[in-house]
Design goal:
Layout: E1 2-7, H1 8-11, H2 16-22, H3 38-47, H4 54-69, H5 77-85, E2 91-98, H6 107-126, E3 131-138, E4 150-153, E5 156-159, H7 177-187, H8 193-205, H9 210-222, E6 228-231, H10 235-251, H11 253-267, E7 281-285, E8 288-295, E9 298-301, E10 307-308, H12 310-319, E11 324-326, H13 331-338, E12 341-346, H14 348-355, H15 358-363, E13 370-373, E14 377-380, H16 382-390, H17 395-398, H18 402-413, H19 421-441, H20 445-474, H21 476-489, H22 503-509, H23 512-520, E15 527-532
Parallel strand pairs: 2-3, 2-12, 3-6, 12-13, 14-15
Antiparallel strand pairs: 1-15, 4-5, 7-8, 7-11, 8-9, 9-10
Helix pairs in contact: 6-23, 7-8, 8-9, 8-22, 10-12, 18-21, 19-20
Length: about 525
């Protein structure tokens, strides 16, 4: 693929806060620790404090990967090597996280992981005396099944119809047959379709937990790059974090810290992504993940009869820490506590919500990671690329609205002058003379002259629009190509990566598709990447 880049600002799809963060606006500096560049990494690595038990982390990962080994599938040597490297004091992780979307959900699921992999490789080149391991943190404790039970591929929506409750990572995917058949049907039988069909068939029929199925799928795509896939829904990992769980539930520190930060960010015009609750943990058992609230001197689990006194809560956390699941504002702290992590790779909204969290990290004396905006990309197949060339469009044109592209194209290619700006300038000179003459006769007539000029300007603008509209009709057939290009590349008038699944790209290119993403993405360049099939 040929790669070209455009600034995130010029795409029009990213928030001003994200643009300001990338541009190093001074007012945002108090809300993160280090800049997302090589100097920032050098600074963090000098003083990085690792809290979690490295040996325990490696042991748990080894155990989790045994689920794949049970199928007589040997994990890649690089995966095994990276697990061993985690035991060393000079090894650090580059982490991204995401929900367990079926069939890997939209493209940005893939893009997040590729960014983490590429950044790990580049940091190793820059700091050869240290090791950097990419990690995919599975949001296995998330309970929002409606956000993960479908994917869009090739204009079709593949849906897993199932009434789920509790943590999504614990759901048995045995009811996925209809969705699985539908997805494989869209893949077809040509090129690399059988290969991907076998991967998803194994993932969703050979495991009894969605977390394990997702690990298999993601490992099949990225195992050769040494990506480690972690399910933190684990008793031993939570046990390390138990004292913070207890302290935060009882003292409500995260609520106070993050609320204060959010007030400050709102004054800067930042759109707040998440708001903390007084208690930022769920109670988690099989089939149940419900909020904990403090009412009537008891810690109650909503929509249940479960309740604890303070002493009972402390004992429950001590005995069953795995039953306490962090929500969106505490999960990052848990992540950074148990991993030797130095960077988090997230989308635009994630970067903004992490800016809300730094004060809470400082409160608990946990290092705040460097925030990396994941690479975004647009993939243009050859058939669409030829249409773009034929229509004489460039990558900047693609990110404009369909109407704007059509208007600009018509003005550029019309044999007629469609703008009346020059004529209007001549009229303005005429009105200056009329205004002067009117003023000499009666100063109050100047306002009447201005009113006539304003009405005429509106009329000229409307006539200009009619000229453009009439000329667009003359180019109707050509302009339809723009409709096709936009609908193909920007489904639902949004970025391709936010809806389209990776499946059909894999069918066409196989694992080379992943290789090309890794080759072309530049995590620290912070540019939107347009990949065109050569």
């Amino acid at each position: 693929m040929d790669a070209s880049c455009i600034s995130y600002k010029d795409t029009g799809y990213f928030s001003q806060t994200v643009i300001d963060y990338l541009d190093d606006k001074p007012e945002l500096r108090p809300y993160y620790a280090h800049r997302p560049d090589l100097d920032g990494f050098a600074s963090l690595l000098k003083n990085k404090k690792v809290i979690g038990d490295r040996d325990l982390l490696a042991k748990i990962l080894t155990k989790q990967y045994e689920q794949i080994s049970k199928l007589n599938i040997r994990n890649s040597k690089l995966v095994r090597d990276h697990i061993e490297l985690l035991k060393l004091d000079n090894t650090y992780t580059i982490t991204t996280g995401h929900q367990l979307n079926i069939f890997a959900g939209p493209l940005y699921f893939i893009f997040k992981i590729v960014t983490a992999i590429k950044l790990s490789q580049q940091l190793k080149e820059q700091f050869p005396d240290k090791n950097f391991v990419p990690v995919y943190w599975m949001a296995s404790e998330d309970h929002d099944f409606a956000e993960i039970n479908y994917t869009d591929i090739g204009g079709k929506k593949v849906h897993w119809w199932y009434e789920a409750s509790g943590a999504t990572g614990r759901i048995n995917p045995d009811t996925m047959r209809q969705a699985l058949n539908q997805y494989k049907g869209v893949l077809g039988l040509e090129q690399h379709a059988p290969e991907l069909a076998e991967i998803v068939e194994t993932a969703y029929t050979k495991f009894d937990r969605l977390a394990d199925a997702t690990r298999y799928l993601v490992n099949a795509l990225f195992g050769q790059y040494g990506l480690l896939i972690l399910d933190a829904d684990d008793h031993q990992l939570k046990k390390q974090f138990a004292h913070i769980i207890e302290k935060d539930i009882i003292e409500e520190s995260s609520f106070k810290n993050i609320s204060t930060t959010n007030e400050q960010l709102e004054k800067l015009g930042v759109h707040i992504q998440v708001n903390p609750r007084e208690i930022n943990f769920f109670y988690l058992v099989d089939g149940l993940r419900e909020r904990i609230v403090f009412e009537d001197d008891l810690y109650k689990v909503l929509n249940t009869e479960i309740g604890f006194s303070k002493e009972e809560l402390q004992q429950e956390i001590k005995t069953y820490p795995e039953r306490f699941s962090p929500n969106v504002v505490m999960r990052p702290l848990y992540q950074e506590y148990i991993l030797p992590n130095i960077a988090y790779v997230g989308g635009g909204a994630e970067v903004v919500y992490w800016l809300e969290l730094k004060s809470n990290f400082e409160h608990y004396q946990v290092d705040f990671p460097i925030l990396i905006l994941r690479n975004s990309g647009l993939i243009i197949p050859k058939r669409i690329a030829s249409k773009i060339t034929h229509m004489d469009l460039d990558i900047y044109d693609l990110f404009k609205s369909t109407d704007e592209i059509k208007n600009n194209w018509t003005k550029k290619h019309s044999d007629h002058e469609l703008s009346l700006r020059e004529e209007w300038r001549q009229m303005q000179h005429l009105f200056e003379k009329i205004r002067l003459r009117s003023f000499k006769i009666d100063p109050t007539l100047a306002q009447s002259t201005d009113a006539v000029q304003a009405r005429l300007e509106r009329a000229i603008n409307n006539l200009e629009k009619k000229l453009l509209k009439a000329e667009k009709k003359n180019y109707h057939t050509r302009l339809e190509q723009i409709d096709h290009i936009k609908s193909d590349l920007f489904p639902k008038d949004s970025l391709q990566e936010r809806s389209e699944n990776f499946g059909l790209f894999y069918v066409k290119w196989g694992h080379q598709f992943i290789d090309e993403l890794v080759r072309n993405f530049e995590p620290l360049a912070f540019k939107f990447t347009v990949l065109t099939e050569a």
